[in-house]
Design the sequence.
């Protein structure tokens, strides 16, 4: 595709009209169950569902030409750091680096994700000690931690996985502690991350849930 063709795709108005069940939000084509997501930079934390042809435009470099950024599809299990080194008061959280540098901790809760700015010196030290954290892409990848209820999980994941987790907690939370059903489903969520890592991401299989924009 020519540079002019890419410009027309990434600078046009995002398709909002539902032209088909679960359509691509860029072109309106039907989506597979497992599909890509694109972050619209001017709408913080808003994800657009994208068909594979549209996603390939950004995968091949078109993201640098416009306001969209393709959410990557890598999941890497990490061995650290210890929860105490992160300086957060809860055992379930994810960390996102903003394009301008600051790192924000998000805590899934019954009302959505609450936030806490991580100390800059703490993050700088962690990225020195744990090299894989330094490769985390701003806005579209996250460091996800679950050290709670017998779980001990640390992952580098696409931001859409974190949106799914936030939606799960918000939708399933019961009582003061969340309820056993919620924690069972969270454990299953991390088991699915392991399966996706082994299969090579969402394009290794058509199985999996869908992440809605703004979940």
Sequence:
């Amino acid at each position: 595709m020519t540079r002019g063709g890419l410009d027309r795709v990434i600078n046009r108005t995002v398709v909002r009209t539902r032209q088909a069940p679960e359509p691509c939000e860029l072109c309106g084509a039907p989506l597979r169950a497992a599909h890509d997501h694109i972050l619209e930079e001017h709408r913080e934390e808003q994800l657009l569902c994208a068909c594979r042809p549209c996603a390939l435009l950004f995968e091949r470099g078109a993201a640098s030409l416009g306001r969209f950024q393709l959410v990557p599809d890598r999941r890497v299990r990490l061995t650290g750091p210890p929860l105490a080194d992160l300086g957060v008061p809860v055992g379930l959280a994810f960390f996102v680096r903003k394009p301008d540098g600051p790192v924000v901790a998000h805590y899934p809760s019954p009302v959505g994700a609450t936030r806490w700015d991580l100390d800059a010196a703490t993050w700088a030290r962690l990225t020195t000690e744990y090299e894989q954290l330094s490769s985390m892409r701003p806005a579209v990848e996250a460091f996800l931690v679950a050290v709670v209820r017998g779980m001990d999980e640390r992952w580098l994941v696409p931001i859409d996985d974190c949106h799914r987790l936030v939606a799960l907690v918000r939708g399933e939370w019961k009582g003061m502690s969340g309820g056993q059903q919620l924690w069972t489903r969270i454990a299953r969520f991390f088991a699915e991350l392991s399966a996706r890592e082994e299969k090579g991401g969402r394009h290794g299989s058509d199985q999996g849930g869908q992440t809605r924009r703004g979940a």
Confidence is low (pLDDT under 50) at residues 1-6, 8-20, 205-215. The chain has six helices and nine strands. The beta strands are 36-40, 47-50, 68-70, 76-77, 92-97, 103-109, 112-117, 141-146, 153-158. Residues 109 and 169 are 6 Å apart (CA to CA).
